[in-house]
Task: structure prediction
Amino acid sequence: MGPENLTEHSLFSRREWLKYGALLGAALPGLAGPAEASPAAAGAPEGGAGAPGPASELARSPRRYGMLKSINLWAFPYPQKMTLRECLELAARSGFDAVEVNYNLEGDLSPAAGEKELAAIRSMAEKAGIAISGVCSFLFWPYPLTANSEATRKRALEIARLMTQAAHHLGTSNVLVVPGAVYIPWLKDSEEVPYKLCDERARAAVRELIPLAEKLGVHLNIENIFFNGWLLSPPEMVQFVDSFKSPFVKVHFDTGNIMPFQFPE
Result:
């Protein structure tokens, strides 16, 4: 959602998010916590100590997934209390494989940072022993790609292009893209955009971004967000992404965004 506490303008408070998430998880078979797992499910012997019982297929599965355990830079008191270097080093010491960084209008990751500065950040991360998993930004909300204002849409495309270039120089192939919004409930003066028009503008914006993304080898990962009132169902998201017929348009699937209303799995 962004770096700010938005509960005043959200449907639920943080406490309610946790409550509903816990209730939903408890209601789903196969999602029991460690305290509820049986010895067999945990891969322990059945029939008491020393019994040879069968191990869980899941526990013994040889399959490995090429996934990184990553944390967003918003989780740190940056830049108020920690420098970017300190954040990267702390994330590495804490056992994370990567950090998702955030693009803003000023600061270390902003239009003021050119190729040289971004390469220096990439080197800083490498020295800290951590990767940069992707680039995201809260700027897609004040500058929606589907805004009614043509000037705002133009600025949004400019920011998205800068983010794509930044990702390339930072050594990551991922940019989180919020493709548009029918309405943004936490913005005081949010405008309403008709659903069909929102869809048309979003498709036009992504088509504009694809040539640069393909040239730089950066994926435009479309995020699912229930707050924006658009692309609310799996078929809608699949149709939207597949319509571009580009391997560089993918999905940034946010399980937290889905959990209060649907089943992430």
